[in-house]
Specification:
There is one protein chain. By secondary structure, the chain is an alpha/beta fold. It has a seven-stranded parallel beta sheet with strand order 3-2-1-4-5-6-7, sandwiched between helices. Helix 4 links the parallel strand 5 and strand 6. Helix 1 packs across helix 5.
Length: 237
Amino acid sequence: MTSFKESVVLVTGANGGIGTQLVQQALERGAAKVYATARTPRTWDDDRIVPLALDVTDAASIAAAVQAAPDVTILINNAGASVPSPGILNHTDEDIARNVATNFLGPLNLSRAFAPVLSRNAPAALINVHSALSWYAVAGIYSATKAALWSVTNSLRLELAPDGVQVVGVHVCWVDTPMAAGAEGPKTDPADLVRTVFDATEAGRHEVLADDVSVQLRAALSQPLEAIYPQLGEPAV
């Protein structure tokens, strides 16, 4: 298990609603320093917060972040992209490229780049923010990239465990942020989400199902496809 007390945390997508809560709550739990990263970092009013420019889709930017933050003990892959429409056949080439680069290759490449840092500074943790839509393919390329990241997280967990690095996968449906402004249904408060994730991390857990939708979809993975997607009709006899 990993403690936030005296930790050094790096958060991607720190400017957003979830990202801001990740930064603030890490400090509340005793983090000594938080690297708050974004393509264009914002100004913070706490000396413990280090704004750091980072584009997770750019290899040179990732390499520069590793050089700038060699003391990281907790890496949180939070940055993400969404899609303007659900159907994968309706996505533009740009939609697909942006989601693959940001939601999948970005956290994968950042995790690979920081893996030696985390192993050297262990005990350490890597937290990847997935989605309940990892298990429900109704958001086109967004669902596909989150499913791919889930698989990557499982692989990283096995590979980094011997080095004392805890890998945590986070699944949640809608969170009350601008990204989900047009979504219908209940939304999780970002503060509640982060509190749940950090509690689970400090308890030594490997996976967080942060809302009822995530719990239901995770459980449904063992069901026939028709149970998950009733629009497919009854199974053939």
